[in-house]
Write a structure and sequence with these properties.
The structure is a single chain. By secondary structure, this protein is mainly α. Helix content is about 75%, strand content about 0%. It contains 22 helices and no strands. It starts with 6 loop residues before the first helix and ends with a helix.
Length: about 550
């Protein structure tokens, strides 16, 4: 049982513990009186234990035990939700289970190459079999973190699983554990060099995840489902940052991991408060509840600004570091991150306007602020988003210690960003998102429809229509392929049955009838057949 506690793992465990405590405090009120709440809390607490074990593990076998334990507790927590939750839990189990099988093969290859299972003693180059092992381990890490193409269970879980599960996903299960292991793979287990093929691969995965997920978030009309796509998109920034293999990018990616755990958890908690008070998270049925729920609304504003990269909140500083690292590796990666920020801000302007502003409906006239036990965790996390922005020295100094002085080359990355050009471009993008929102509201007269000019733009509308029908869902594509193979197998089975049950029988009957016709019982007829046979043999021999 090999465990290792050092600055990085201690920081992650402290974060997991703090977030889990706040979410559990919130959940006590939210889950009160709900079906299977006892089961949910059992899985919840075991999940924290497994997450802590996975972070501490310094042996691959020990880590696998805790890692796979997280898969089971995740399945349990999702299945305690709605009637459709079990199907969603199966989907998540299959997607992550297949990725974990890849990771197991990667661990076997890594242990074979290194000659040890102790993680802290492994430092391999990324080439030949090492490259294969690296890819297989990365599949396991990014699948746990919710990156594309292992993401499609998350939006379904947002609507089917109990809401505290979705708040816990970025706080313990998804981002912190998955990105922590990704970082260990890139910094410790393997030698990730900016010049290697592995670095652009990670940056491409990160960029695709940012753009595609945020584009889907933009058109959602359900509070939790919109947040779930942002949970996927934000993973892209972390993978992009770590994938740059540059100090600024790596620190930005890890800082963004902590920041995302904060504001994403709090945003899901605000969604839970809206659900608890208004009885729905359908944005079409909400509106104007900000004045009825001022504390929830204030927490939403702070965390929405943080995830959008508005200064001086924590998300602004982590994104600027990721931008800096991405720009060092190529302008295309920087532009992908910047475009992602535009759509992030646009979708949260839409969400905030549709849910909290505008005219309140008759159904929501009796809406009121939720219990204090649900407000306190949101307030604490929202305040932390401000503190980690203004005093970003606190988390960044810990993260810098992970890289070491040699990699930092004497640079410190806390404080206000040094590249004011990037800051100016970020501010311009945020202003552009605000103008885009105002244009959409004026054109369509509704906050909910503020991005419809993008949703139904020529070319995009057809793609969106297919995406909303799960045409691009890897899981559904896999089900169709499996279904096609099953149908082919069924027809093959039926064909073989036909051969044995019909064709063979008919051929046998034909031969039987022929033999019956030849054997008449007439001896002279047999003698003639014998003579004909002898003549045929003689003719053959003479030739």
């Amino acid at each position: 049982l090999s465990l290792r506690l050092y600055n990085f793992s201690a920081f992650i465990i402290l974060s997991i513990s703090a977030f889990s405590f706040l979410i559990s405090l919130y959940s006590v009120v939210f889950m009160s009186g709900r079906h299977k709440s006892n089961q949910f809390f059992s899985y919840f607490l075991i999940n924290i234990a497994f997450a802590t074990g996975a972070i501490l593990a310094d042996n691959f076998i020990v880590m696998l035990f805790f890692w796979e334990g997280l898969l089971l507790t995740m399945f349990g927590m999702i299945s305690t939700g709605t009637k459709e939750a079990f199907r969603t839990a199966i989907k998540a189990f299959i997607i992550l289970g297949i990725a974990d099988l890849c990771m197991m093969v990667g661990i076997a290859l890594t242990a074979h190459l290194a000659g040890t299972l102790t993680i802290s003693k492994i430092n391999l180059p990324i080439h030949s079999l090492g490259g294969v092992a690296f890819i297989l381990l990365i599949i396991g890490a990014i699948s746990k973190s919710g990156a594309m193409p292992f993401h499609s269970w998350i939006p379904d879980a947002a609507t089917d699983a109990p809401l505290p599960f979705m708040a816990l996903v970025p706080a313990a299960f998804e981002k912190l554990v998955g990105i922590y292991f990704l970082t260990r793979i890139c910094l410790d287990i393997f030698i990730l060099d900016p010049k290697s093929w592995a670095s652009p691969l990670l940056m491409i995965i990160g960029s695709i995840t940012i753009i595609l997920a945020v584009m889907m978030a933009l058109i959602q009309k359900e509070y939790k489902r919109l947040l779930s796509y942002h949970a996927i998109s934000q993973v892209g920034y972390m993978i992009l940052g770590v994938g740059t293999a540059m100090p600024a990018g790596i620190i930005g990616g890890l800082f963004h991991m902590i920041n995302n755990a904060m504001y994403k958890s709090c945003l899901f908690l605000t969604g839970g408060s809206v659900e608890k008070s208004a009885g729905t998270t359908d944005l079409g049925k909400l509106g104007g509840i900000g004045r009825k729920m001022p504390v929830t609304f204030a927490c939403f504003i702070i965390t929405a600004a943080a995830i959008s990269g508005v200064p001086p909140f924590n998300g602004f500083f982590s994104k600027e570091l990721v931008y800096d690292g991405a720009l060092e590796r190529g302008v295309v990666f920087y532009l992908a991150a910047l475009v992602g920020s535009f759509f992030t801000a646009a979708s949260f302007l839409k969400l905030g306007h549709a849910a909290f502003l505008g005219k309140i409906s008759k159904e929501n006239e009796n809406v009121k602020e939720v219990h204090a036990a649900m407000l306190v965790p949101m307030i604490i996390i929202a305040v932390a988003c401000i503190v980690f922005g203004v005093y970003n020295y606190l988390p960044i100094s810990v993260i810098q210690s992970v890289l070491g002085e040699a990699r930092l080359e004497g640079h410190n990355f806390w404080g206000f960003p040094a590249n004011m050009t990037l800051v100016a471009l970020s501010v311009i993008v945020l202003i552009g998102a605000l103008l885009n929102h105002l244009f959409g509201v004026k054109k369509f007269g509704s906050g909910l429809k503020a991005v419809d000019h993008i949703h139904y733009a020529p070319g995009l509308s057809q793609i969106y229509a297919k995406a909303e029908k799960r045409f691009f869902d890897p899981y559904d594509i896999g089900l169709k392929i499996v279904g096609a193979i099953a149908r082919i197998g069924w027809w093959c089975d039926k064909f073989i049955d036909w051969i044995y049950d019909n064709l063979v029988v008919r051929v046998t009957y034909i031969f039987s009838d022929g033999i019956r016709f030849a054997h008449t019982g007439n001896y002279s007829f047999y003698i003639v057949w014998s003579m004909v046979g002898m003549i045929a043999v003689l003719v053959f021999l003479i030739r």
